[in-house]
C-alpha cells in the first residue's frame, strides 16, 4: 500500500482564474507560478456557485448546491452533510484535520441565534479556548468577519472567533488604521490603500496560524489542512506597501469595461437595479448600496484592479511561506498541495463588478493548481472540471473510498494525463431568493470545452456563448437558429445533472445579509 500523502489545501476568496502571472495577467504571483510550473493547472475549473457559502459547501461535501441545500449565501450547510465531507471522511480514515481562516459554512448575519460558531448571535457562546470540532475538522481557527466594510458594522468581541479576538486585541484604534486611506484616492467608495499594518492583516494571520499548526501537528499521522484566505474579496482594501506593488497605469484591465445590458437576458438588468425584498432596512441598504457598484471610469477601474492584484500578491507571499514550511519539515515530496478559490470577480467585465448572477468567465472560472506525489510537472487540464471535484480527488490520493451520494469525481486521472480520460461538462447552479436582488431566480449552468449556457428555469430565458469564437462573451446566441443543435445538447446536459435536488430547499437563516 502506498504511503498516504498529506494534503495542504489553500484557497483564496473571489479570485479570478485568469489572475495569476502564469496565466498572462500583469499580477505578481511568483510562488503560485512556481507551484503551477512544478505541477498541473486546471485552466477551465469552474465554481459550482457564484457566491461564497454554496461554493464552499460544495468543495467540502462534494455535492452540488441543490443537493446539499446551501443554495445561496444565508443558507446554512446542514451539519449532517458537512460532517461527512472530506474532513470528516479523511479524519475517520486516520487523518489529522485542521481548518484555518474563513469557513463560511454557516451564516454570520442570522435573524435568530443558530448555535453555530459563525453566527454573530451565537459565537459568544463558544469559549475562547474552543478550537473545534467543526464540520468534520478536528482543529479549527476561524475568521468569521472575513471582510470589513465601511458601510457595515464589524463583528467585535465577544462576537466572532479566533481572528476577531486576536485582531481587536492589537490596539484600541486598529479599525481606524484599517479605515485610513494611504492614498492616492481612488474615487470609488470601497477601493482604498489601507494603513493597517501587514502583520495584522487577515492574510498574514492565516499564514501564521497555518504554519504554526503544520509545525506543531502530530507528525505520526498524515494531515489534511484547509488554509482559507478571505481575500481578494471586496472591500478592495489592500494594505500598504502591497497596495503599491502594481501601478494602476500598468495593470491590464478588463477589455470589456462597458455595460451592455440590452444584449443580455432580462435578469442581468433586473438584478442590478431591482430593490431587494426584505423587512430589514439594513438588508435593503446593504444589497442596494454595499454590494453594488456604479459604473467606473478607466482611472477608477485601474485603481480597483491594482488594489485587487495587490491583495492576490499578499496571498501569494503567504503561499510561499507555506511551501517553504513543508520544505523545511521535510514533507514536501509526500504532500499534495492544491490551490483554488471559491468564485471569481467580475472586475469590470461588461461594466460589472464584484459578483452577481451573471456567469461570465471572470466570475465562473476559478482555475486550480495541483502539485504533489504522482503529479507531473508543467501539465495542464483543458477539460471543464469543477471545485466540486476536490473532495473526490482527495479521497483518491488518500486511497479512501468516497461517500455515496456525492457528485464529486476524482481529477486524479486527468492530473496524471491518463489516455482516454476526459470530461464533457461541469455544472453550476444558483437558487436566488427575492431578498438578494429583488427577483427570484432558478439558474442552471453548463460549461463545456467550447460553450457555456445559463438557463433561467422560472422564465425560460437564457444565455449561450461560443467560447472558442467569442471568448469575450459578447454575443448571446440563446435561441439563435445557428446553434439550435448545440443549445439542445447543452439543455440535455443540464437536465441530466447528476444527483438529487432537495425539494423544498431550506430557506435562508440570514436573508440577504451574509
Explain the overall architecture.
The chain has 514 residues and is α/β, with parallel strands linked by helices. Helices cover 28% and strands 14% of the residues. The chain has 16 helices and 14 strands. The strands form three sheets. It has an eight-stranded mixed β-sheet with strand order 5-4-6-1-7-8-2-9, sandwiched between helices. Strand 12 and strand 13 form a beta hairpin. The longest helix is centred in the middle third of the chain and has 31 residues, at 298-328. The protein is globular and about 60 Å long. The model has no long low-confidence stretch (mean pLDDT 95).
Q: What's the short story on this structure?
A:
This protein has 514 residues and is α/β, with parallel strands linked by helices.
What is the C-alpha radius of gyration, as a whole number of Å?
21 Å
The total count of strands amounts to 14
SSE string, helix = H, strand = E? EHEEHHHHEEHHHEHHHEHEEEHHEHEEEH
In percent, how much strand structure appears in the residues? 5-15%
- Main sheet summary: 8 strands, mixed
Layout of secondary structure:
Layout (H helix, E strand, L loop, with lengths): L5 E7 L17 H8 L2 E3 L2 E2 L5 H10 L3 H4 L10 H4 L3 H7 L3 E7 L36 E5 L18 H6 L6 H6 L22 H15 L6 E6 L37 H8 L7 H10 L7 H31 L6 E7 L19 H4 L3 E4 L7 E3 L3 E2 L3 H9 L13 H5 L9 E7 L1 H4 L3 E7 L3 E6 L5 E5 L17 H12 L19
Parallel strand pairs: 1-6, 1-7, 2-9, 3-10, 4-5, 4-6
Antiparallel strand pairs: 2-8, 7-8, 11-12, 12-13, 13-14
Helix pairs in contact: 8-11
Amino acid at each position: 500500500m502506498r504511503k498516504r500523502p498529506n494534503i495542504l489545501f489553500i484557497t483564496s476568496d473571489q479570485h479570478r482564474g485568469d489572475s495569476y502571472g502564469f496565466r498572462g495577467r500583469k499580477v505578481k504571483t511568483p510562488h503560485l507560478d512556481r507551484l503551477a510550473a512544478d505541477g498541473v493547472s486546471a485552466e477551465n475549473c469552474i465554481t459550482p456557485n457564484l457566491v461564497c457559502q454554496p461554493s464552499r459547501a460544495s468543495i467540502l461535501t462534494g455535492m452540488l448546491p441543490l443537493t446539499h441545500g446551501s443554495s445561496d449565501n444565508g443558507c446554512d450547510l446542514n451539519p449532517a452533510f458537512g460532517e461527512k465531507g472530506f474532513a470528516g471522511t479523511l479524519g475517520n480514515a486516520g487523518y489529522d484535520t485542521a481548518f484555518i481562516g474563513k469557513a463560511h459554512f454557516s451564516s454570520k448575519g442570522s435573524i435568530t441565534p443558530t448555535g453555530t460558531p459563525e453566527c454573530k448571535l451565537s459565537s459568544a457562546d463558544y469559549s475562547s479556548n474552543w478550537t473545534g470540532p467543526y464540520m468534520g475538522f478536528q482543529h479549527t481557527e476561524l475568521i468569521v468577519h472575513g471582510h470589513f466594510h465601511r458601510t457595515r458594522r464589524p463583528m467585535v468581541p465577544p462576537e466572532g472567533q479566533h481572528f476577531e479576538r486576536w485582531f481587536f486585541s492589537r490596539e484600541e484604534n486598529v479599525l481606524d488604521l484599517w479605515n485610513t486611506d494611504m492614498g492616492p484616492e481612488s474615487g470609488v467608495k470601497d477601493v482604498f490603500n489601507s494603513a493597517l499594518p501587514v502583520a495584522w492583516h487577515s492574510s498574514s494571520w492565516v499564514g501564521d496560524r497555518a504554519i504554526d499548526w503544520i509545525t506543531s501537528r502530530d507528525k505520526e499521522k498524515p494531515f489534511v489542512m484547509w488554509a482559507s484566505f478571505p481575500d481578494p474579496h471586496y472591500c478592495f482594501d489592500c494594505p500598504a506597501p502591497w497596495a503599491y506593488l502594481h501601478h494602476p497605469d500598468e495593470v491590464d484591465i478588463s477589455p470589456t469595461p462597458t455595460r451592455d445590458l440590452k444584449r443580455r437576458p432580462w435578469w442581468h438588468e433586473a438584478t442590478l437595479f431591482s430593490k431587494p425584498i426584505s423587512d430589514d432596512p439594513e438588508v435593503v441598504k446593504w444589497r442596494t448600496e454595499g454590494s453594488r457598484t456604479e459604473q467606473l471610469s478607466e482611472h477608477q477601474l485601474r485603481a480597483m484592479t491594482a488594489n485587487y492584484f495587490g491583495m492576490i500578491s499578499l496571498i501569494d507571499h503567504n503561499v510561499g511561506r507555506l511551501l517553504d514550511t513543508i520544505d523545511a519539515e521535510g514533507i514536501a515530496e509526500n504532500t499534495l498541495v492544491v490551490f483554488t478559490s471559491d468564485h471569481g470577480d467580475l472586475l469590470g467585465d461588461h461594466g460589472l463588478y464584484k459578483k452577481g448572477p451573471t456567469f461570465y468567465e471572470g466570475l465562473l472560472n476559478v482555475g486550480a493548481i495541483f502539485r504533489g506525489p504522482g503529479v507531473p510537472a508543467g501539465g495542464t487540464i483543458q477539460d471543464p472540471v469543477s471545485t466540486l471535484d476536490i473532495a473526490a480527488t482527495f479521497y483518491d490520493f488518500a486511497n479512501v473510498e468516497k461517500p455515496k451520494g456525492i457528485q464529486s469525481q476524482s481529477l486524479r486521472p486527468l492530473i496524471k494525463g491518463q489516455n482516454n480520460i476526459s470530461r464533457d461538462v461541469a455544472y453550476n447552479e444558483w437558487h436566488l431568493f427575492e431578498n438578494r436582488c429583488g427577483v427570484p431566480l432558478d439558474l442552471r449552468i453548463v460549461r463545456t470545452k467550447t460553450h457555456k449556457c445559463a438557463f433561467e428555469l422560472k422564465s425560460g430565458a437564457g444565455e449561450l456563448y461560443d467560447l472558442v469564437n467569442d471568448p469575450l462573451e459578447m454575443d448571446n446566441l440563446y435561441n439563435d437558429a445557428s446553434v439550435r443543435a448545440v443549445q439542445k445538447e447543452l439543455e440535455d446536459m443540464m437536465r441530466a445533472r447528476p444527483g438529487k435536488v432537495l425539494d423544498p430547499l431550506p430557506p435562508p437563516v440570514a436573508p440577504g445579509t451574509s
